[in-house]
Amino acid sequence: MSLSPFNLIGLSCQSLVGNPLRSGLSIIGVFMGVAAVSATLQVRNISQAVIAQQLAEGDAPQVGFTPQWNRITRQRSSFNLEDLEFLQRRLRGVQAISGINWMRSSQVVFQDQEATPRMRAVTPNYLETIGQKLVAGRSFTAIDFEQYRPVIIIDQYLAEQLFKGINPLGKNIYIEYRPYVVIGIIPTNSNDDEPTGTIYITTAFHSTMTGNNTISSISIRPQRLEDLQNLEEQGLKLLEQRYPGSKFWSWNTVEDILEQKKTLESVSTALLVVGAISLLVGGVGIANITIAAVIERTPEIGLRRAIGATQKDVMLQFILEAAILSLVGGSLAIVSVHGLTVIVAQRFEFPYTFESRNAAIALSSAVLVGVGAGFFPSLRASQLDPVKALKG
């Protein structure tokens, strides 16, 4: 007659408690392996959170293109709105594309306040391309471009410097004696150590002032971060085909972050391999100790078989012992790694959130290795001849 699951669990626990040294060594082996796997998963999660935080603090990931100066012809190509449409049609994975003209800084006046901010002339979708959200007001519209309206968007720093607590929206400011209406406010660039303020006008209005309808550089925002480098390569090829003989500079705004991400992923992968090896070593330890337990307890196995225990009962008991050792060692490892990670994250101000999914992966791998390691010794124990086992 087979034993109930509760009786099997009770017998397994009694056996493990009766051999504390053997059980302790097995638990330590599993603990080391699961701790290595769990720590690797935590490192990967923290690194991903750090990368996400760095991306969130700056502008959206973008790739940019600017024509190079030809030293022989003393000329360089210029972009225009048709180039934006051309790239939009030919490239895949583009979330937004826009152009910008770099203008010289100009004196800006509002009542008795003055400033000398940076000036930028931008095409539609510029704010979407750089990932900037308005603090107040609105963005440029198609009508602003079609009707050549003298409207501007300023950053918070300039708004504070010029308006001193007055609501800037709808107010007129003068740039080189021309009036402009403030329609929107965006956050100040966090990368500016010493901000001077920034003003954005439409390329349409800029062309009416200068007669120049070209674009200095093109920026492209990908739909996914993984597409950034591919967009940079493909965009460069398309522009060189469109302008034979011309060369272009290309760059992306998160190159350092991407390199950091690759390094962290490589380190995490290497650590995961080490953790897997450690876990397998723990499994080998469980297998060896299970084999030793089978040899040591051969008479006990014979007695149990003689009084009615089935082969399945014997096999399940040894498998349960391996599973319990794995669960205990794995649980201790997860709790320990979590505690240490919390301390380190608080000490160095890293973003950290406990993820039950990673804990489940680490613990499941421990149980799987433990049960797998104890399976064949357990099978051997269940196949022992009761008479020979009693003679043991």
From TrEMBL:
Transmembrane segments: 270-295, 315-345, 357-376
Residue intervals of the ABC3 transporter permease C-terminal domain: 273-386
Membrane topology reported for the UniProt record: Multi-pass membrane protein
Residue intervals of the MacB-like periplasmic core domain: 23-233
Cellular component per GO, a single term: plasma membrane
Domain of life of the source: Bacteria
GO MF term list: transmembrane transporter activity
Pfam families the UniProt entry points to: FtsX, MacB_PCD
UniProt keyword list: Cell membrane, Membrane, Transmembrane, Transmembrane helix
InterPro entries in the cross-refs: ABC3_permease_C, MacB_PCD, Macrolide_Exporter_MacB
Subcellular location, principal: membrane
Localization in the cell: Cell membrane
PANTHER family: ABC TRANSPORTER PERMEASE YTRF, MEMBRANE COMPONENT OF TRANSPORTER-RELATED
Family as reported in the entry's similarity comment: Belongs to the ABC-4 integral membrane protein family.
Protein name per its UniProtKB record: FtsX-like permease family protein
Organism expressing this protein natively: Lyngbya aestuarii BL J
